[in-house]
Amino acid sequence: MAKKSRFSTKKLQISKANTAMITVIALTSFVVIFSLVASRALLNQRSYQARVIAKQEQAKRQLKDNLDASENLVIAYKQFTGTPQNILGGNPTGSGDKDGDNAKLILDALPSNYDFPALATSLEKILTDNSKYTIDSINGVDDELNQQANASSPDPQPIEIPFEIAVSGNYGSMRDLLSVMQRSIRPLRINTLDFTGSDDSIKLTINAKSYYQPAKNLEIRKEIVK
User: Fold this and answer.
1) In degrees rounded to 5, what are phi and psi of residue 179?
2) Domain spans of the chain?
3) DSSP class of residue 226?
4) Secondary structure class of 194 (helix, strand, coil)
5) Nearest to 141 by CA among 118, 161, 122
6) Which residues of the chain, if any, have pLDDT below 70?
7) Residues 176-212: pLDDT tens digits?
8) pTM
């Protein structure tokens, strides 16, 4: 009985030792795994913070460049509009056909909004300054509704406005008409010329187009750093 009791005691001690060892191994494994997971999380967080800081610094540099560019733009604009004569040789403060500051002339030449009636009025004014020919018609399609989608753009490009002019007169007046259109401050591109009649009575139909350029919008974007 004594031998059996000693054997049971040793067996119990071994069992307790094994249990303690398993517990230590389990705790050690948990600590190691937790440390690895925590380290990975910290590294990922550090990497994320580094990317955020890099983007913030990039945004700050871009903002500084924009502020510097805006100051230079103001100076250049004042120089452009403050000349004694405009780009057409007119008076910047006058009210004649060639008068007005350069900024006004540029906007008149290439407006930022689609406006066919304004184009037709401008063409009529240009053409009626010469009495050697008769304006029969100025036609085109008023496409304002469809052009509203082009009201502004981050990268605006000139957009065509097609039109057609029919005039009548003699051969010399037709030549003068083309010269008047060529001198227009507004860009006019002639596609086709259709002459009918004789030298003294010619009818000319001009298929042409002008342009407008939508305003450039200021796009402020938000970027999610991942």
Assistant:
1) -65, -40
2) 1-79, 82-110, 112-216
3) -
4) strand
5) 161
6) 1-18, 20, 24, 129-131, 149-152
7) 888 888 878 888 999 999 999 887 888 999 999 999 8
8) 0.61
